[in-house]
Design brief:
This is Secreted protein. With 211 residues, this protein is mainly beta. The protein has 1 helix and 14 strands. Strands 3, 5, 7, 8, 9 and 12 form a 6-stranded antiparallel β-sheet that branches. A 6-stranded mixed β-sheet has the order 4-14-13-6-11-10, with no helix packed on it. It has a two-stranded antiparallel ribbon with strand order 1-2.
């Protein structure tokens, strides 16, 4: 980004300037991986990355998205969601691609379409958080982070201002819940059981005023 110097009341202040126009080459920032979600084995979670725009105009273009699931997980649908982030504020998720094709036992997925990344402004980047759902294997180890380096791979299909780039996608399994272990209950000797039973009967008769 370019910087300009402002003189304010005799003080020099550095101000970040968002470029108003994008150059002819692709301008979006390399995808940034989402933080891993924590999920129990056998359950589902979201994985993905954010594509940011550093320019003061929205950028749009045709893209292809290649996804590889981390170890011990598979993709659950042919849909990829997108959530616009405008100057740091999330706008809510909508369907971005619904034509994805899964392969290799649902561990890989390819999608294509048009991606529009909103304009940056007020000194803040804007972007699109691109996510999809995985299901974690019941055999996944607890309290472990599984990653797929380059599992998120975005490429420009030849038009527009969207840069290609890769990011790691990951998830973390929840800690195992300890299984309670119960020991054998103590057993009373036969004569003790008889004595206890007799005492209960006598106490009951006493309450009823009987002898």
């Amino acid at each position: 980004m370019r910087k300009r110097m402002l003189a304010v009341l005799g003080c020099t202040v550095a101000a970040v300037t968002i470029a108003l126009a994008a150059p002819a080459s692709a301008v979006t920032v390399t995808p940034s991986a989402d933080q891993p979600n924590t999920v129990a084995p056998g359950q589902t979670a979201e994985v993905g990355a954010v594509v940011y725009n550093q320019y003061g105009s929205a950028q749009s273009g045709g893209v292809a998205l290649y996804l590889t699931a981390p170890e011990n997980s598979t993709f659950t649908s042919d849909t990829v969601m997108g959530e616009q982030i405008i100057e740091g504020v999330r706008q809510g998720r909508t369907t971005l691609f619904s034509n994805c094709v899964r392969s290799n036992a649902d561990t890989q997925m390819r999608c294509s379409g048009t991606l529009t990344v909103p304009a940056a402004g007020n000194g803040k980047l804007s972007g699109v958080d691109i996510t999809t759902t995985i299901r974690v294997s019941t055999n996944a180890a607890p309290a472990t982070t599984y990653t797929a380096a380059g599992g998120f791979n975005l490429s420009n299909s030849g038009n527009g201002q969207i840069s290609g780039g890769g990011a790691t996608i990951a998830f973390t399994t929840a800690s195992a819940v300890p299984t309670p272990v119960f020991g054998a209950l103590p057993r009373l000797a036969a004569d003790a059981v008889g004595t206890v039973g007799l005492a209960i009967v006598l106490d009951a008769r006493a309450l009823l005023g009987q002898r």
